[in-house]
# Entry
Amino acid sequence: MKRFVFRNRWLPYALVAPQVAVTLAFFFWPAFDSLRLSLYRASPFGDRLIWAGLANFERLFRDPAYLRSALTSLVFSFVVTFAGLALALLLASLANAKIRGLAVYRSLLLWPYGIAPAIAGIIWLFIFHPSYGILPWLLSFVTAYQFNWFLKGWVAMTLIVMAAIWKQFGYNLAFYLAGLQAIEASVLEAASVDGAGPIRRFFAVTFPLLSPVTFFLFTLNMTFSFFDTFGLIHSVTQGGPGDATSILVYRAWKDGFEGLQLGFSAAQSVVLMALVIGLTAFQFRFAEKKVTY
Amino acid sequence: MSRTLTRPGVLAVRAPARAKPRDRSGLVAHAILLAAVAVLAFPLYYAFVISTQTLSQVTSLPPRPWPSTALFANYAEAWQRAQMGRLLLNSAIVALGVAFGKIAISLLSAFAIVYFNFRGKQIVFWMIFVTLMLPVPVRIVSTYQVISVLGWVNTYWGLTVPLLASATGTFLFRQFYQTIPDSLAEAAQLDGAGAMRFLWSILLPLSKANIAALFVILFVYGWNDYLWPLMITNTPEMRTAVIGIESLVPRTSQLPEWNIAMAAAMMVLLPPVAVIVLMQRWFVKGLIESEK
# Structure
């Protein structure tokens, strides 16, 4: 514990001033203003605000398009997170051996983290391109199905899921590998002496011991897929076809910036705010318990 | 299940019994990891390959998965068409400004919080904490209004300053300062050094590793951020690279010049990927520390 402090009346305030100024002007005030705006709607000419009470929220939760968006977001985030983590964990477990060159593999796995979601999207867009892409071309040998994301919502969804997983996969795998290497071999040997087979050993010993890693990766991937994938949607599918890939953040942006429905967009921001607060609370609650057993 | 039980020697006679099975599992591990690396690398390799081909090669089937000769022509064309010089400069200014600005601001506030007692310290601490729960997407319209009132639309100020508050950075430095023994600060004070002198000549050099770790994470974040620059800029001159190259991506009615689009994509992804690869040790440290 720190005991020592410098004595100075004004210096500490000067030191925190920049942080506090930015926080107040660009975080607290806009957040407060979003809350306020969510209770108003713009007049037909957009020149003044009309009190709307909770009408924006009522409209939001009755709007089938918005509810579809919420579902799309959930499906997208969960598929990206669970598929990404499960595959990484599977590969890491299969590759868990005392081998040389793990540091080299780590370098070869971590670089995709540096690629912007929007750029990852552009690359996968071409891989999926209905006329020139390598993936539809390969699939055309197997099936006559038109694997065209311009027309089919689920193909567009697959496209953005692939791009998102691709970007995240390397470091999911790297973290699981490191986590597995940290598990004492003697613990697993003890379990096998007790008669536990590989599958049983995995679920009874390895997986619980990995829970801090899983938890860390889970929150990271959830936040990533919920918020940071905006660029991916915007540069690749623009929420389409129809609104098949219109996740909540994209919708809030679109209604606010293109639709200029300020109150309606602000209400969506408030819902997102509630989600982030929930996710952060979840994170801190479990982080405190360390999630080890 | 019985595989290990039939070899009870594993526990007793360690070295010899271990050698052979370990070798085999080592081979399997290498094979799996190499396959994973190859699958991960393929999209990037393919994008690079496309960026070296001519338009007719790109649009002909079957796809050609090896490089061709149009590399310089494509990169030059992309550079000129999207004003890549300007876009990359903007991205560099934003990424460096955000990284160094956040580091400076969070370093100073962590110093104040750990090394001073002052009224309102708790409030400041909680204010910083709450910013974690207010990422850009939850305050889209209102933040834009603040920026436009300030006249910061289409300016570097608007692109950087509003992103400078950093809870993760502040917590990281706070945690680190708390591990530094008090005797250092006491000794510095006995030698007649004031607080700022102590920060500058003792704390700052000690923080190098943390600064480097945070720098990698923040540079990548600043370079790749999409929503913020999309809202704050609306002229081609002020766009950052990740947004600016969108004009090169062929849409349905346009000439399918994917080779040009891929050349642009390669140029935009290179700087952050290079920072990660070159500063990998710091990157891993930063990933772990900043998410704690």
Q: What stands out?
A: The two ends of chain B are 38 Å apart (CA to CA). Chain B has two domains: 2-74, 83-290. Residues 14-50 of chain B form the longest helix (37 residues). Residues 2-74 of chain B form one domain.
